[in-house]
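The instructor's notes for this session suggest beginning with a concrete chain rather than abstract definitions. Hand out the sequence below and ask the class to guess, before any prediction is shown, which regions might be ordered.
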Amino acid sequence: MLTVLFLFPFSFYNVAFLLSAAATFSVICPATMLINSVSINRKTVPATLFNYVFGVLAVSVSALVCTLPITIYYFGYTAFIAPITNLAVTVVVTAALVLGVLGVLLSFIPFVGSFLCLPVFFFAKGAASVFVFAVEQIGGTKFGVVNINPNENIYCFFITLLFILLVKVFSNHITNRKERAENANRKNLKNCA
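After discussion, reveal the predicted structure:
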């Protein structure tokens, strides 16, 4: 980002640059802190599923909150339904991406590859079509988009700061709780020995 700003200083006034910078920040800072503080370290199916769902929701909510002031200022509305729809869309997009890469890899196999990659591409196109259909249907709902007066931008800024503060406090609380549990386990091991 610094390279882009150095080479093109006026890109700071570009909406796309501001949104990508805010979204990148949201993935690096608040979402990562949330995921690290709440993730379950067990290797069971429910724990893995919880970590996946929580990770998608954490990234989606933090991206929504961090880009909220910019979105409201430039567009005057936002979609609060985005974190929920991102959960479903992420699964479909992942399937389409994996099938597309698999189809490309299968196409390099001589003779058989052309026959194998056709059904794979068919399913990848189907997954992409489901994604487009879902986005169009959800985007067309009345409750999917909320109009907000851009003059209330200062409130969105404070909501973003509050979110970052809450994530930091929550992650410190979880980290301290984990450290206390580890210290208690060490004391118990010393007492048993």
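Then share the key points. The CA atoms of residues 96 and 127 lie 5 Å apart. The chain has six helices and two strands.
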